[in-house]
Structure formats: structure tokens, C-alpha cells
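Section 3.1: Structural characterization of target chains.
Under the original work plan, the team committed to producing a structural model for every single-chain target entering the pipeline before any wet-lab resources were allocated. The record below documents one such target. The sequence was received from the expression subgroup and is listed exactly as submitted; it comprises 182 residues.
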Amino acid sequence: MTRELTARAAARWRAAHPGGTVTYRDLAADPLPHFDGSYELSRTLVDEVRAADVILLGLPTYNYGAPSTVKAWVDHLIAPGVSLDPGTNESLVSGRELIVLQSRGGGYGPGTPREGWDHAEQWLPHGLSLLALEPIFITRELVFAYVMPDLRHLEPIAEQSRLAAEAAIDALWTPAEDAVAA
């Protein structure tokens, strides 16, 4: 479900920025090694972020938290002298828009029995705070309602969440043909 959100967002961005450049990194298909103190890979990843105006991060929630591949990506990005100024420790990658497209199997919103159990959305802003990247979350909840019999009764709420996430994505950028027509 996260891939559906990121694909929609990428298509929307491309429609608004014809001729724009897209760098695609699939952390699930090609996971990054965990940070080992070497900054060689960090330089590559930081260069990707520096080259970006917008970062689309697909964030599935696994067992109430971010996948370790996302944690590894963040660990590589926080690199003194690479992403942080060695003299001031200020971010060298700030000023980028970071859209986090999150999917959650359950419902963790206000008033739900598991409110507050989503540790991915709580952690990521803190994890990226040194870099002055402020994530904007677009979240789709209850994706398990479509596949788990015990949650089928929640499909209408899951559908509302899907539609709300799609509407939020569609509101991010105006396609170039719409801007010309206006």
C-alpha cells in the first residue's frame, strides 16, 4: 500500500514538473547496510538528498515502527562533515520538502485503542531533526482491513483513509497542464 502512495505522489510531481529529474531508491528491494562508521555510502546518499528539491519517502509501519532499512538510511544521512557543517554542526541538506507517505496495517489515530502505538511517525521527525528536514506525513491506515477477516468490518474506515491520503497527495502539486489552463 505504501508503494501505491509513493507511485501516486511521484506521478503527481512529474506531472507538475515536466522534464524534472527523479532519483529512485527502493530501500526494500535494495536495502542499505547498517551504518558502520564509514562515510563512503553516506556521501552518495547525502548527495542524492542535496540534489533533491522534494524527497518522497515511503514509510510502511512494521510492528509499530519504521523498517530497519529506513533507520539505516537516516543513520547514513546524519554524517558530520558530509551532511552537517564541521564547524557549526548545522545542516547542509536543509530546505528540502520531505513528504512521508506512510501506510499502517492498523489504526493508530486519536480515539483508537492503539492510539500512540505508531512509533515510526513519532521517531522520524526526531531522527531527522539534526538535518533540519521536517517531514510532512500523509498516512493511510487500516490497510489490513482488506486482507484480514477480523478487520473486514473496518473496510469503510480504511476506504476513507485511502481517499483522504490520495486527496492529500493530489493537493501537493498542480500538474503543469492545469497551471497553464488557469
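The chain is about 35% helix and 10% strand.
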